[in-house]
Write a sequence for this structure.
């Protein structure tokens, strides 16, 4: 039986999930998607994701892949069929057939996360789900000076949890910076991969340092310390969104049959 | 003791409320605001609203007024103090002192409601709270031809529930029309006031008539029938937002002390 390898772009509101990855208890995004695919296939389907987002973290562009044995649904319409099995806080946005070698996690070359802070004094109820209120008036220039040294290959032990299971704490950050967008302050960071709590630890620390009007080289010192106690604050999950994931060209060659 | 009359602009996500008005059971927006003001005043405070929105209906610009005996909070900052007592799905956006004669409900001259339909095939999780998915490809021109006859003074018995308690079912509609906005189809209607379920009955019927490619005079016939059975469909609460409320100039003369 032909088994297509499908790549789907997924968006979700992470509020009511204990995270991406299936756990012994609690509602997970992976669990909800696997249940939906299980109903469609009448047999279990395993799903791989580019980023295993934490409890309360959202996604606009999570990428997943899985094998399907259903022949009757064209690849570009597969996400529509899946949506009729999914709850409204998880939506499949696009779908395409990809080469058998494609793996959402291991093939990914660049992951982009965004952290949203509301700049207004009042956080509109419509925005509260995807943005966190800033408790001080930020200085965009200082924030960008503080975050510039993050770019490059570093040991990020300071900005992860001791529980992090990766052998190496070295990750490569390709870009990091703040910009204003529709009344919000957005921190965007991209890299080869991220350690557990890394983005939230970095952004929480940057905002805390901005508030204290710290010197631009303060992040350099903190990175070099390789010590978790140098994380000033871990920003709340609600502001973090897995924005986008990139793959090498040969993997992006999607077979739209 | 001086008792200022305060006018506040309120936004809320109606999802987790059984409506504006305090009821015997269930979480209401009025109840939550009165509880917050009660905590601030250490005595009960009664709040009046421009529109008593239904269960699940949202507000971007609900207007309320109440009397306060608290002297220490300047009127333009009153909403900030109140927000610290409110849950995150209700926010006070602005506050101002108004003349004693101002009444949020009885002084209002024009109420504007918006109904949001998502135009994309997929309703993004971020939008699902404030928009409803369209089940057919709408024709903007037909929709606007169908809705034009709503403008003016009409008996809206067709578009309300028999339980509506107002003696008269006559209301004046000042404007009604559809327009596209950020990938959404918005129906905006303004009028002197609205009967129970009136906006949702009108928009639900308009969309159903558009789907059936009805003649432009079909709404004229339905209005004239003065019969609830001529409502084709009542649109879901989630798409409806109390957008804005207007008051006469003398009432708008806010005393920003």
């Amino acid at each position: 039986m032909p088994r297509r390898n499908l790549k789907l772009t997924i968006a979700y509101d992470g509020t009511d999930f204990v995270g991406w990855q299936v756990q012994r208890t609690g509602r997970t995004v992976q669990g909800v998607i696997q249940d939906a695919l299980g109903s469609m296939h009448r047999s279990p389907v395993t799903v791989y994701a580019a980023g295993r987002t934490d409890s309360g973290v959202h996604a606009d562009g999570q990428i997943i892949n899985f094998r399907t044995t259903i022949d009757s649904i064209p690849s570009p319409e597969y996400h529509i069929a899946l949506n009729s099995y999914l709850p409204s806080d998880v939506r499949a946005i696009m779908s395409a057939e990809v080469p058998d070698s494609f793996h959402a996690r291991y093939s990914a070359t660049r992951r982009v996360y965004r952290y949203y802070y509301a700049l207004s004094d009042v956080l509109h109820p419509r925005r509260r789900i995807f943005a966190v209120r800033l408790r001080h008036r930020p200085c965009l220039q200082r924030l960008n000076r503080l975050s510039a040294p993050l770019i490059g290959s570093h040991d990020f032990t300071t900005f992860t949890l001791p529980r992090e299971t990766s052998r190496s704490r070295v990750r490569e950050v390709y870009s990091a910076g703040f910009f204003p967008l529709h009344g919000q302050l957005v921190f965007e960071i991209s890299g080869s991969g991220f350690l557990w709590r890394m983005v939230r630890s970095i952004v929480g620390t940057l905002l805390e340092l901005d508030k204290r009007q710290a010197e631009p080289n303060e992040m350099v010192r903190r990175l070099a310390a390789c010590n978790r106690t140098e994380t000033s604050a871990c920003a709340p999950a609600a502001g973090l969104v897995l924005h986008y994931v990139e793959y090498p060209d040969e993997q992006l060659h999607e077979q739209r049959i």
In short: Chain A has a mean pLDDT of 92. The radius of gyration of chain A is 19 Å. Chain A touches chain B through 23 residues (CB under 8 Å).
